[in-house]
Amino acid sequence: MMALGANRMSIIDHFNLPVKDIERSRRFYEIALEPLGYRFLMQDGNAVGFGIDNWNFGLVETKTPFPQMHLAFVAGSAEHVHRFYVSALHAGGRANGEPALRPQYHSAYFAAFVFDPDGHNIEAVHRG
Question: pLDDT tens, 32-74?
């Protein structure tokens, strides 16, 4: 399966997000990322990895305080952005911006935002 939006080059091979409770966050991301074509791949100690074929996005459980981060996932279409938003809310995310065109970022920037269980601002974006 080809990643939605995989035709774009990425400058980051993988990224691991700090979380307080690995199981709670794993459940959230399994549901929230499914509409974007990403799935749980494996667990390595206190870390879990998601992607298509490779670990591109991970969660690492940490007990030390960490700042909330912003992370945007590529969506293949505006419909995928909508599906991400609904799935993320269903999984326990909190709304932080309904799916909409955001021309202040780019004329074809369509995105939605949710807060994950740790307060990270998670986005799905399709750039038309």
Answer: 999 999 999 999 999 999 999 999 999 999 988 899 999 999 9
CATH of residue 77:
3.10.180.10
pTM attached to this predicted model: 0.88
Q: Which residue is it, tokens 């609904």?
A: 86
Q: Using CA atoms of 102, 104, 108, 109 in order, give the dihedral in degrees to the nearest 10.
A: -50
Scan for tokens 């691991």, then name that residue: 16
Q: Based on the structure, what is the number of domains in the chain?
A: 1
CB-hemisphere CA count at 13 Å for 73? 38
